[in-house]
Write a structure and sequence with these properties.
alpha+beta, 3 helices, 4 strands
């Protein structure tokens, strides 16, 4: 699920998308107010939407090891907070 809660922030509960985006943009916070689903919150610059489109179109290119390492970092933050 992707949510654009306002013009200043972008939220997603998609772990893979959040990991991909966090290679370029830091995760501002992880919203755990819903006990069944965490939301990753990013600042919302215009360029972020280009990355999201690239991801969903299957055109994103990243080294597998780089992505896997970033996924581990995001998971550690998710479960550590």
């Amino acid at each position: 699920m992707i949510i654009n809660d306002n013009k200043n922030h972008f939220q997603t509960s998609d772990l893979a998308l959040a990991s991909f985006l966090s290679l370029t943009y830091p995760i501002e916070k992880i919203d755990k107010s819903n006990p069944k689903r965490a939301e990753f919150v990013f600042k919302n610059p215009e360029e972020l939407h280009n990355l999201i489109d690239t991801y969903w179109q299957g055109k994103a290119r990243v080294e597998p090891q780089v992505f896997f390492n970033q996924l581990k970092i995001v998971k550690a933050r998710l479960y550590g907070e």
